[in-house]
Amino acid sequence: MPVRFSVDSTLEELEESEGFGAEIEVEVNGKEFVLALCYIVQALAAILATVTFAVSSCDEIPYVLEKFEEDERRVIRRNCRGGKLRVGFGTYEPISPVVFRKEGDYLLIEAFENDRPVGRERVEVREYLKAALGFLEEYLRGTKDRAYLTGLERVKELVRKSKYKDVLGG
C-alpha cells in the first residue's frame, strides 16, 4: 500500500498517560515520513483533517473536528490555508510537521524535521483515503469517545459526497 499509518499503543493503553507516549509512524511510497513520539488526540485529529482536506477543503475541518477540544481545532484550522495543510500528527520527539497539497487527484506530501525537508512524495488521493480511513476504523474500533467517533462519521460523510466515494466500498 502506498500509504501506511501505525501507532504502537492502543487507546486503552494510553489512558493512563492521558494520550502521551505513543509512537506514530507514517510511510508514503515505502519511505518513512514520520517516526516520533506523539500525543494521540492530536495525531488522530490530524489524520481526520488530512482526509477532510483531501476530499473537500479547509472549510470543512471545523465540522469534522467539532467534538475535539477548541485548541485542536484552532491549531489545525490555522495551518490550513493557501491550498495547503500543515499538520504535526501530535509529534513531540522529534516534532515532525508534514505539509499536504492537492494536485488534481494527487496529494503532494512533504515531511520536515527541525525545519529541514526530509521527504517529498506524491500519492493518489484514493490511496491516501484508503489507508487513512482503514487505519482510523481499525484503531478506533471499540472506542466510545464521542470526538473520535463523530470525526470518523463526519469525514466518511464527506467522502461519500465526493468523487472518491468508491473507497468506502459497498
Would you give an account of this structure?
The chain is α+β, with helices and mostly antiparallel strands. It is built from 6 helices and 9 strands; from the N terminus they run βαββαααββββββαα. It has helices spanning 11-14, 40-55, 61-64, 70-78, 125-139, 146-160; strands at residues 3-7, 20-28, 31-39, 80-81, 84-87, 91-93, 98-103, 106-113, 116-124. A 5-stranded antiparallel β-sheet has the order 4-5-7-8-9. The longest helix has 16 residues, at 40-55. The model has no long low-confidence stretch (mean pLDDT 92).
Keywords:
five-stranded antiparallel sheet; 9 strands; alpha+beta
Topology (elements, then pairings):
Elements: E1 3-7, H1 11-14, E2 20-28, E3 31-39, H2 40-55, H3 61-64, H4 70-78, E4 80-81, E5 84-87, E6 91-93, E7 98-103, E8 106-113, E9 116-124, H5 125-139, H6 146-160
Antiparallel strand pairs: 1-2, 2-3, 3-6, 4-5, 5-7, 7-8, 8-9
Helix pairs in contact: 2-5, 2-6
Q: pLDDT average, as an integer?
A: 92
Largest sheet: 5 strands, antiparallel
Low-confidence stretches: none
Global geometry: globular
Measured distance between first and last alpha carbons? 20 Å
Instruction: Give the helix tally.
Output: 6
Number of strands: 9
What percentage of amino acids are in beta strands? 25-35%
Helix content: 25-40%
Brief synopsis:
This protein is of the alpha+beta class and 170 residues long. The protein has six helices and nine strands.
